[in-house]
Amino acid sequence: MAKIYIVDVTNRDGVQTSRLGLAKLQKTIINLMLDNMGITQSEFGFPTTKHELNYLNANLELVEWKAITRTKLSGWMRAISGDVEESFKNVPKLKYCNLSQSTSKQMIEGKYGGKKTYNDIIKLTCDAVECAKSKGAEIIGVNAEDASRSELEFLIKYAQEAKRCGADRFRYCDTLGYEDPSTAYDRIFKIAKEIQLPIELHYHNDLGMGVACSVMGAKAAVDAGVDAYINTAINGLGERAGNADLVSCILAILKSAGFGKKYQLDEQIDISKAWKLAKYTSYAFGVPIPINQPAVGDNAFAHESGIHADGALKDRRNYELYDYEELGRGEPEIIETGRMITTGEYGGIKGFRNVYNKLELRFQDEHEARNILELVRYANVHTQKPLTDSELRFIYFFPDIAAKVMTVTPYFEPAGALKKRIESSHYTKSNMIV
Questions:
Q1: Nearest CA to 292 among 302, 283, 280?
Q2: d(CA 351, CA 327)
């Protein structure tokens, strides 16, 4: 029987959220946590974006070191041969990718200004797929941007042609959060039945239906006989109103009335890691988890009404659909209320050793300690937040990869008017800046 898998896009779509973002170290910790949870795939970034390259290559080194063993790391790029060429040149060990093209009349006319036809879109995509194949890509997903507003017949043709050229999956993107669950099921079922290719479901939450559409789309794909890959973001982060929430989608498949044991979720997923992942991502983004967030919000298992409290105390199933222990919740959180020693960008060796002693990590000599201390200082500059235990452990066990992740050299090759201005030393007066 076909299965349902999870492709998390926090490190690609989530970081595109306006006014938010993650440091490369934080993105790396999220990849490690997704792997620990058994999530099938992480869309970990953009191989054509210069400031991503050290991070991307370093994370693929973690795969080689078997620090990441279950989560496939995939890159996102436009379905243009030139972008594919550049991506595999920049990130030579990349094995998984998603190639994206707009497919709706609105996007083709609105973005390309009438300069591209539907046939052009197909040709661009097929050329990109063939290019990725030639570069050694093992799994290629083809994305239909704005699929929910695209003509169904064209989507089927587009996916069939991509499959013929070597695509392994078809991603149906509800780019504007336009679709409803019923329509999602009907359209995905027809596409999946026709193309017989695994379907990725990429739903945004502009109308509050991202999770509902995602699980109904997955249901449709499985009913049509193909695997489903739900695109999620941790805590529902993402552009505008966000993407389908990772934990909510998993729980909907495991616990809801229409799914239960009828549909099989990837068995390697360990939901008990959900709480830790949600908390870290909230801290890294600097965005509190909403109090009423399913499963991981502060009120997800809180009862105040007399009838509810009484019922929950007698039998938790009276008012709780699933157990907080399943999510890794229930352990006490220890908060320091007395003396606290931290280590950061200005930290010294004694405070640094104290912090690592609490983590039960030891140094073989002074050279090792001072090298790790320098990396911890840089990490604090890099994230501009007190480092978490996971970050401190990562730096300790993978110092060379941590250094690579945190290294960003600005791409700066002045040309034209800028080059002339710099060469003539014609700089703007400071009072015009401040």
A1: 302
A2: 34
Q: Which residues of 227-242 are buried (b: 16+ CB within 10 A; e: fewer)?
A: bbbbbbbbbbbbbeeb
Q: Give the residue from 181, 80, 182 showing the smallest Cα distance to 125.
A: 80
Specify the DSSP class assigned to residue 197: S
Helix 24-37 to helix 389-397 angle (10° resolution) is: 90
Four-CA torsion 260, 262, 264, 267, nearest 10 degrees:
50
Which residues, other chains included, contact 392 with Cβ-Cβ below 8 Å and sequence gap of 6+? 355, 356, 359, 361, 376
Distance CA(131)–CA(144), nearest Å, equals: 18
Give the type of residue at 42.
S
CB distance 215 to 177 below 8 Å? no
Q: Is residue 216 within 8 Å of residue 184, measured between CB atoms?
A: yes
Could you read off the pLDDT of 345-381 as tens digits, one per residue?
888 898 899 999 999 999 999 999 999 999 999 999 9
CA distance linking residue 95 with residue 85, whole number of Å: 13
Q: What is the mean pLDDT of the chain?
A: 93
Cα 102 to Cα 123: distance, rounded to the nearest angstrom: 13
* Residue given tokens 């539907």 in the structure block: 118
**Cα-Cα end-to-end distance for the chain:** 63
Domain 3-285 has CATH 3.30.70.100: no
- The answer to pTM > 0.85 is yes
Decide if 299 contacts 312 (C-beta within 8 A): no
Tokens 């890294």 belong to residue = 284
Return the structure tokens found at 363.
């140094």
At 375, is the secondary structure helix, strand, or coil? Answer: helix
- Domain coordinates of the chain in residue numbers? 3-285, 341-434
Instruction: Spell out the SS3 assignment of 231-288.
Output: EEEHHHCCCCCCECEHHHHHHHHHHCCCCCCCCEECCCCCHHHHHHHHHHHHHHHCCC
H runs (alpha helix) in 75-232: 81-90, 105-112, 118-134, 152-165, 181-195, 210-223
